[in-house]
Every structure is written in structure tokens, then in C-alpha cells.
Design brief:
Shape: globular
Largest sheet: 5 strands, mixed
Distance between the termini: 53 Å
GO molecular function: heme binding; iron ion binding; monooxygenase activity; oxidoreductase activity, acting on paired donors, with incorporation or reduction of molecular oxygen
Keywords: Heme, Iron, Metal-binding, Monooxygenase, Oxidoreductase
InterPro entries: Cyt_P450 (IPR001128), Cyt_P450_CS (IPR017972), Cyt_P450_E_grp-I (IPR002401), Cyt_P450_sf (IPR036396), Cytochrome_P450_Monoox (IPR050196)
Protein name: Cytochrome P450 family 4 subfamily V member 2
Strand order of the largest sheet: 1-2-3-8-5
Radius of gyration: 23 Å
Number of domains: 1
CATH architecture: Orthogonal Bundle
Bound molecules: protoporphyrin IX containing FE
CATH class: Mainly Alpha
Structural class: alpha+beta
Strand content: 5-15%
CATH superfamily: Cytochrome P450
Number of helices: 19
Family: Belongs to the cytochrome P450 family.
């Protein structure tokens, strides 16, 4: 539960405590209240809240955010991430200290550009299935596109992370797909409900037992995929040995997944990851790598459907690059889609998929002129940070031009951090941008999108991910001839 607290009892500097009774937070929504307070107290450098027994400093100014994100010391995640541990263990997102440093070093090369390029094929293939599904809505009633996009993103991450095609787009009722969604909901609910924090108490509630059931489904699935992949690798090595007496990996063109690379990655001492370590990382990619991208894509479509002038500019750019062909998107095409890139960035400014994230301070530090003691939990609210009217005038307006290179000059580097920043930034940033641009290019090459909701009808909720709780309702028209506008 969130409550205000008198700073003087915990911290030396007393000016920033909320005088209101914040008990209402659970009635009107945690994120909603954060939106209200960060606006109301925009001129303050920071403020403090209680989440149940947990005191939290709330940051939404670039100078304050920089102190935390640029530091190589404050890399420890807050207590709230503990509820991800049963599912993700202490993988890249949740680990800290030497374990995190060593993992980050081992895993960074798997996101190399040349490897991402291979994944573009998967994005084109799965995007093709999405287009066929969207086709049946052309010139029909408005429909909610949220799930279609999300299942496409899920298929993409499954195939790229595990090398496994789960066909979520065609079979949304798979046990694994359902478990992923239910698990994310349960974790968010637990984070906001301090009475569900102790494990023993949690297990007394039906949510706790459901959590256990879903955990088994998720882990069994990943364990099976890893075991299959190990067997496949052994087989192919054996076949290679049998055919030419050489035990090196075959030079066949089979597409690699992150999992293949994790199986061969070694640390500085030449040690490989255990199967359990690998499961942590694969589960982390599955969790962090699709919901985020799906939300970002949905918001971008909503914004374009709401801003026809910007959509026309995207269409013109697409026509210049693709003419009226429907060929797969290439890396070269992506480089040329500069306006679309600004659209993607501006959509993430207004609707950052991760609207807040938290750290626990490893040592006392000075933020915004105030001494904050070691152990304090710090919440970075990207949603509010990105709406600073001094830096982004008329912050609620969708203006991709804000991200033209000439308009970014001199901007504080920590004023726009949808992928976080500093040593613990998002490792999947380039992957996500590639996926967003590719899917948007595929969709907008073929369709004209109209958004059917006003901003207040979206039902914005921001827990782990910023989502429209009422979905994204759009209408589609087929574009007559690419290049005719
Ligand atoms: C639009 C899409 C995405 C957004 C907005 C996003 C945003 C973020 C943010 C804000 C963080 C920092 C979280 C924190 O400090 O608690 C993060 C971390 C992370 N993200 Fe992403 N992400 C996206 C896509 C992806 C994808 C596609 C992957 C994997 C394929 C991925 C993997 C990760 C991992 C592993 C971390 C932890 C990195 C570390 O601590 O070293 N993300 N992401």
C-alpha cells in the first residue's frame, strides 16, 4: 500500500513528503496516482512514497535520473523485482554484482548486429502471418488489434530466443502462451499488494497457487526446449563427425537462436553456463522481449491512426523505399526509414513500454541536492520524465520531428530513456527497434490505419508494462497503390 511519510524520520532533509493520504492509491490505481503526483510536483526535484513497508524515492528529472543510471555502483534492482525471481531466477534483468557483470559480458555478443540481421527473416515471416490476419478486417468495423500484434511479437521472440516456432498467432490458446500472460498479471498484482509479499501468506491465496501452476508450465516448456536443442546440437556434431571426421560445427545455413549462442558462450575463465543459468536467460528474454515490443508497436499504430499527417509522411517514405512491391524488409531498407525511426522514438517518448523501473541504492548518495541513504529504493518514472514541457514543448502532442537529428542537439542525455541508460540499459534495444520498424513497415505499406479511440478512452495502465487496458481499436483500409499519395 502506498502512503505518504514524513521524511524527517528516515532522511535528513524533510521538504518533500506528500501531504495527501495516499491510501486511495489502490482504489484509483498506482500508476494513475504517479501520473497525477509527478505533474503536480513537477517543479520539485523528487518526492518520496511508501509502498507498504517500503520507502521509495520518485525521480522524474534528467539530472536526478542521471545520478542513478550512469552509476556503475547503483546497479542493484529494487525489492519489487524479487517477485520475478521464481520465474526468471537471477538472470540478466534481476541479478546484481559480479553475477550480473559476468552474464552481461557473456551475453552482449549474442546481440551483435550481424546476428540480429538473421532475425530479420523471422520478423518478416511472422509479420507476413500478421498481415494475412489483418487483411480480413479491411473496410470492416473497428477491431482491437492489441492481441494480434502481441501474438506476433510472441512468435518472433520464441523463434529468435529458443529457435522454436510455437505458432501463437494461429493458436492463441496454447498452454504456454496462456501461462506467460497469467504469470505477468500475477506478478504485477503481487508487486502492488504488500499483504501478498510473504511467500507463506501468498500460498494461502488462490493467486499463490495459480502462480505455482503457471511456473511449472513455463519452466517445463523452457526445460524441454533446452533439452531438445542440446540433443539437436549433439546429433549434428555426431553427423558431422560421421561424414568427414571433423567435429567442428556444420557450416549449414540453419538460423541460430539466442539459445544456441547461450549454449556455447563462456565467461573469462572459459566456463560455460549451466542449464539452469541458460533457462534463466531464456525466460528473461521471453518475459522482457515481447510484451515491451508489442506494447510499443500498438502505441505507435494508435498514434499514427490519430495523426494522419504523420501517417502520410510514413507512407511517402515507405513508397520511396519499396515502391509498390511487397518484398521482405532488408537491413538496408531499415536504414533508409528515417522518418519511421522518429515515429518509433516519439511513440516511445509518449508511451514508454516500461513506464517505471526501480533500483536499490548500494551506498548513500546525493540526488537533486538531497542526501539519500543507502538501501533506499528509487523509482525512475520514464513516463513523467518524457513529458517535461521545458524539453518537449506541448508534451502530449505527437511530433516525430522532435527526433530529427538537428532537434536533438544539446538535449540532456537522460531526458529520454525508454530503454533505460548507462551500464544496465536494455540489451535488446536494437532488436526491439528492428522489430518495430520492420512490422510497422509491413503493416503500413499495405494499410491505412484509423484510430477509433480518444486518448481518455484508452484506459492507460502502467504496471510492469504500459498498456491500453481497453485495447487499441482501429479501422483498416487497403492502400490502393503504393506511391499514389
Ligand atoms: C520496445 C521494447 C523494449 C523496451 C522499451 C525495453 C526497455 C527496457 C528497460 C527500461 C530496461 C531496464 C529495466 C530495469 O532497469 O529494470 C530493460 C532491460 C532489459 N531488456 Fe529491454 N526493452 C525492450 C525490448 C527488449 C527486448 C526485445 C529484449 C530481448 C530480446 C530485452 C531484454 C532486456 C534485458 C535482458 C534487460 C536487462 C538488462 C540488464 O539489466 O543488463 N528488452 N529493457
Amino acid at each position: 500500500m502506498l502512503q505518504c511519510f514524513e521524511t524527517s524520520c528516515l532522511f535528513n532533509n524533510p521538504p518533500f513528503f506528500l501531504k495527501k493520504n495516499l491510501i486511495c492509491l489502490f482504489i484509483s490505481g498506482f500508476f494513475k496516482q504517479l501520473q497525477v503526483y509527478t505533474e503536480e510536483f513537477r517543479s520539485w526535484p523528487l518526492f518520496k512514497l511508501w509502498i507498504g513497508p517500503l520507502p521509495v524515492m520518485v525521480l522524474y528529472h534528467p539530472e536526478c535520473v542521471e545520478v542513478i543510471l550512469s552509476s556503475s555502483k547503483h546497479i542493484e534492482k529494487s525489492y519489487l523485482y524479487k517477485f520475478l525471481h521464481p520465474w526468471l531466477g537471477t538472470g540478466l534483468l534481476t541479478s546484481t554484482g559480479d553475477k550480473w557483470r559476468s552474464r552481461r559480458k557473456m551475453i552482449t555478443p549474442t546481440f551483435h548486429f550481424s546476428i540480429l540481421t538473421d532475425f530479420l527473416d523471422v520478423m518478416n515471416e511472422q509479420g507476413g502471418i500478421l498481415l494475412e490476419k489483418l487483411e480480413k478486417h479491411v473496410d470492416k468495423e473497428p477491431f482491437d488489434v492489441f492481441l494480434d500484434i502481441t501474438l506476433c511479437a510472441l512468435d518472433i521472440i520464441c523463434e529468435t530466443a529458443m529457435g522454436k516456432n510455437i505458432g501463437a498467432q494461429e493458436n492463441k490458446d496454447s498452454e504456454y502462451v496462456r501461462a506467460i500472460y497469467r504469470m505477468s498479471d500475477l506478478i504485477q498484482q503481487r508487486q502492488k499488494s504488500p499483504w501478498l509479499w510473504p511467500n507463506l501468506v501468498y500460498m494461502l491465496f488462490k493467486e499463490g497457487r495459480e502462480h505455482e501452476r503457471n511456473l511449472k508450465i513455463l519452466h517445463n516448456f523452457t526445460d524441454t526446449v533446452i533439452a531438445e536443442k542440446v540433443a539437436e546440437l549433439e546429433n549434428s556434431k555426431q553427423m558431422k563427425r560421421d561424414t568427414d571426421g571433423n567435429c567442428e560445427e556444420s557450416g549449414s545455413k540453419k538460423r541460430k537462436a539466442f539459445l544456441d549462442m547461450l549454449l556455447s558462450a563462456t565467461d573469462d575463465g572459459g566456463n560455460k553456463l549451466s542449464y539452469r543459468d541458460i533457462r534463466e536467460e531464456v525466460d528473461t528474454f521471453m518475459f522482457e522481449g515481447h510484451d515491451t515490443t508489442a506494447a510499443a508497436l500498438n502505441w505507435a499504430l494508435y498514434l499514427l491512426g490519430h495523426n494522419p499527417e504523420a501517417q502520410k509522411k510514413v507512407h511517402r517514405e515507405l513508397d520511396e523505399v519499396f515502391g509498390d512491391t511487397e518484398r521482405p524488409v532488408t537491413v538496408d531498407d531499415l536504414k533508409k526509414l528515417r522518418y519511421l525511426e522518429c515515429v518509433v522514438k516519439e511513440a516511445l517518448r509518449l508511451f514508454p513500454s516500461v513506464p517505471l523501473f526501480a533500483r536499490a541504492l548500494r551506498e548513500d548518495c546525493c540526488i537533486g541536492g538531497y542526501q539519500v541513504p543507502k538501501g533506499t529504493n528509487v523509482l525512475v518514472i520514464t513516463y513523467a520524465l518524457h513529458r517535461d514541457p521545458e524539453i518537449f514543448p506541448d508534451p502530449e502532442e505527437f511530433r516525430p520531428e522532435r527526433f530529427f537529428p538537428e532537434n536533438c542537439k544539446g538535449r540532456h542525455p537522460y531526458v529520454y530513456v525508454p530503454f533505460s541508460a548507462g551500464p544496465r540499459n536494455c540489451i535488446g534495444q536494437r532488436f526491439a527497434q528492428m522489430e518495430e520498424k520492420t512490422l510497422l513497415a509491413l503493416i503500413l505499406r499495405r494499410f491505412w490505419v484509423d484510430s477509433c479511440q480518444k486518448p481518455e478512452e484508452l484506459g492507460i495502465t502502467g504496471d510492469l508494462i504500459l498498456r491500453p487496458s481497453n485495447g487499441i481499436w482501429i479501422k483498416l483500409k487497403r492502400r490502393p497503390h503504393a506511391g499514389s499519395e
